[in-house]
Amino acid sequence: MKNIIAGLSTLIVVALMALTASNGGAYHGGEQGKVIEDIGDKTAQAATVAAPKEKTDRDKEMDALSALKDKAGNAGAFKVSQEYKSKCASCHGVNGSGFQNGKPMMGPKLFGQSEEVIYKDLVDFKAGRKENIIMKGLLISLEEKDFRKFAKEIGEFPARAKALNK
Question: Residue 7 — pLDDT band, cuts 50, 70, 90?
């Protein structure tokens, strides 16, 4: 009986494979492939029809102003470690303000928080007591000494900013 069921199952699978192949294949084009080709053709046509517009004087001025703001914002920033730049700055800002170029960032403001609070938060994120997938992923390979180093550096941000503004 088992052999009969196994034989029938095999025949059904082979028949379904043959049906799929005769209809153009599931992964080798068929109707689905034609739809994707049509989308590609329309995208290519739209790209050739819509020539890039030349920037107006106002757009050029706004680009120059934006570049100047970026340059000024980075020049006035106090020095931070390479570790902070690589792990923290993309979400919390170069100076821990939670803003970059006047726009809010993904991470909250760190500037002004004490070393102890920062350390406790880092430990809680790694342990899962505070839920944030990005933070947990960044902290998974770090140890307590790394947390202390980050907490100390971030806790010093107000003093560094004050020294820079003197």
Answer: very high
- Tell me how far CA of residue 32 lies from CA of 23, 25, 42, in angstroms: 11, 9, 16
pLDDT at 81: 87
Closest CA to 96 of 104, 108, 114, 83: 108
Residue appearing with tokens 């706004």:
62
Q: Give 96's contacts (C-beta < 8 A, 6+ positions apart).
A: 88, 109, 110, 111, 154, 157
- Indicate the DSSP class of residue 143: -
CATH class of 77-164: mainly alpha
Classify 100 as helix, strand or coil: strand
Domain boundaries, the chain: 77-164
Question: Which of 14-23, 32-41, 123-132 is the most confident on average?
Answer: 123-132
